[in-house]
Amino acid sequence: MSLLWRNRIQVFLAPDQVSLTGVVRGIRPVQQFRQSGVCVQGNDPRQWRAPLQLLEQMIGQMDDSFRRSGALYVTLSNHFVRYGVIAPQPSLANPDELMAYASFQMREIYGERIDDWEFSLSTWDPYGGALCAAIARDLQLELAALARQYEIRLAGIEPYLTAALDHWSKRLIEKQVWFVLVEAGRFCLVSLSDGVWRCVRNQRVVGNLQEELLAALEQESIIFSSDQSLGRVYVYAPEWTGKLPVHDLRWQFVHLPDEKHPVPSYFPWVAGMDNSQDHA
Q: Residue 194 and residue 175: Cα distance in Å, rounded?
């Protein structure tokens, strides 16, 4: 069966939740079901073990005919991902050199831990650099094994941050782009200037989100000597129940989604928001 006509099984995997969306493919894709489950972390230091076990149960309970004709797409919470900006390098000649260069730069950031990680890169621009994402190799292998167990094609694994950036890319048109993705207990901050990747932070929230986010914005602004005029920051924070950032003299916050750019149906469930009309 062509992948264009396979059912789409879209998963969002986070430390405390798993959501599963089933879309019947065709000329007009139709969302057939959506379900979400909550999991409790045990003593395993690998935060992804508990949600992965819950995912296995959810897939096992899925309609067999839908599952057999499905392709599995997994979006990973930023709790499971590490990021790094790969600086521009016009002299790179081929993909092997690019990956070696990315591995070197990630090792500079994270040290020997990268030996147990798998890397992926955003679209490479020799003059703009790229965003590199890394996940535990064990997590990738277990997702692949789960797909084989249920005879589902594992069509893709994508970090939440890059999925959100791709989805709202047409909205992020400023010369200086600041984008923030907030999850429960964590935020990711990305900045680009004239199409060049400048920074990425994947930071745990210790206390006050607004204070910690403003501090991170100011630090990154100083590091890269960006324009000190009013900066526009796009924020997507569906799971955050506390106080969200508000405008100040330096930053203007634009909260996503909006009418022209709704939330993808497979993103985490948002309390009080009906995503039933979203398209996969």
A: 5
